[in-house]
Amino acid sequence: MISVLAWLLCQIAFVLLCQAMPRHAKQIWGKVLSDQQEIIRRRSGFFLLALSLLVLLNKLQLAGAILVWFGLLSLTAITVAIVLTMKPTVLRWF
């Protein structure tokens, strides 16, 4: 169950980081976001990534937590990339 929470945090973080990039923001929203919106999304994304690692560190040992975290990052990157390619407007929900 703890890995599901960490995965959800990673998923939201990657979507926020994706939205912070002007090229992807244009795909998702149809326009480039303001600098302030980009900064907020980028900082929130990195904060959620760190929080997901802390969630894993709470239940697993250091080596196991880092290993699971990198696996979750890989899985999340693939899912966000696929959604961004197939249906980018779905990423507006975050």
Itemize the secondary structure elements and their pairings.
Elements: H1 2-19, H2 22-29, H3 35-59, H4 62-86
Helix pairs in contact: 1-3, 1-4, 3-4
Describe this structure in words.
The chain is an all-alpha fold. It has helices spanning 2-19, 22-29, 35-59, 62-86. The two termini are 22 Å apart.
Comma- or semicolon-separated keywords:
mainly alpha, elongated, 94 residues
Structural class: mainly alpha
On the 0 to 100 scale, the average pLDDT is 92
> In percent, how helical is the residue content?
over 70%
Low-confidence stretches: none
Residues in β-strands, percent: under 5%
Radius of gyration equals: 14 Å
Please provide the ordered H/E string of secondary-structure elements.
HHHH
- Strand element count: 0
Multimerization state: single chain
> What is the number of helical segments per DSSP (H or I, 4+ residues)?
4
Shape designation: elongated
The major pleated sheet works out as: none
Please report the distance between the alpha carbons of the first and last residues. Answer: 22 Å
